């Protein structure tokens, strides 16, 4: 299904394109395409059977022109250096689009935690944290969760780093449990940012979200909360959802509370009473007003882009649409809200978490959500204005906003020495 694409090469194409439109000098564009620092580590972990296994991990720090490095840590068997480079650079563009004072970074370990015990995962996480401890830190590089990591791993990393420093350092990592300095509102933040961008885009194209039909691919952190919020806050009708086991479609709106309870009980949205079963690919081509891919990368490709009937596509996932599919969607008039804008709510509330840690003063959930709304709404309109000014699609416009911000910061700082 997925196109064979190298995400790092795709990222470079986007930056070249933005650099050309903005008339930037080629040397400056080269700086912005290149990761500043890359650390590869091979480290031993004692497994439960008493044997020692060597794991490989990376931390790529892409750019820090606008502030400390920021980006998640992924544990996955397919992690490789080019994927980590691409993910690190996407963080640079994402933090720039929403104008929070960070650069971009990403980390990963080549491992399949689903095949490991909790003890093995903990030892691997702590040793990896110790290995990258030489380049991370609350003022240097602040990791966060990504695929197969969560608050549990963030707590271990915070503890490992703190043990080495000799005092508690909550600001070294975000996405922590609330009890040790996590922020209220973080679990729903990515979905909340996503529905805010959908709300603003709907106003622009004259779509009434009340009763608008919605299909959501992926029913994890991002997809399920998107269902909850778009139904509760805007009265939209979610009529199809899916997860890795398959999808369901219904003539009547699906209620979040009921679908979530079913998923919790059975492990999947499949088999929810009163619905028809569909394949994941079919969900993407349903005739709906809003399509929200919230699962994987490269699901909308040149093969199926022509079949997408939604008026608006909000990218909850990172990289769900390939470069070629983007052109087809634009030609067919589908309004795409690009990932670096549409799913930036997560890193924005991670930023709030870090600010609260450094201040040692904590906000209410209403304060978090209000500030998030202000940042995402402002970013949406800045991207929309760019889209009108340059008559380009929203993804190109988001890159123009981001690349310009990083270029301006780089020029102001100058080239050391
Ligand atoms: P998650 O693991 O909580 O959920 C992923 C969901 O996708 C699960 O329901 C899974 O069953 C489903 N899925 C897997 N394969 C599928 C397939 N072939 N078809 C349909 N569904 C499938 O992950 P998440 O945190 O919700 O992240 C989802 C996406 O959003 C990822 O691309 C991630 O990088 C991106 N993202 C997440 C955050 C965040 O704060 N969690 C922030 C920004 C971007």
Which secondary structure elements does this structure contain, and how are they paired or packed?
Blueprint: H1 7-22, H2 26-33, E1 37-46, E2 52-63, E3 69-75, H3 81-97, E4 104-109, H4 118-132, E5 141-145, H5 151-165, H6 186-205, E6 213-217, H7 221-234, E7 237-243, E8 246-249, H8 256-266, E9 276-278, H9 280-284, E10 290-293, E11 312-314, H10 323-331, E12 335-337, H11 339-342, H12 345-359, H13 365-389, H14 394-413
Parallel strand pairs: 3-4, 3-5, 6-7, 6-10, 10-11, 11-12
Antiparallel strand pairs: 1-2, 2-4, 7-8, 8-9
In short:
By secondary structure, the chain is an alpha/beta fold. It is built from 14 helices and twelve strands.
Supply database-style keywords.
alpha/beta, Rossmann fold, 14 helices, five-stranded mixed sheet, globular, single chain, 17% strand, seven-stranded mixed sheet, binds nicotinamide-adenine-dinucleotide, 417 residues
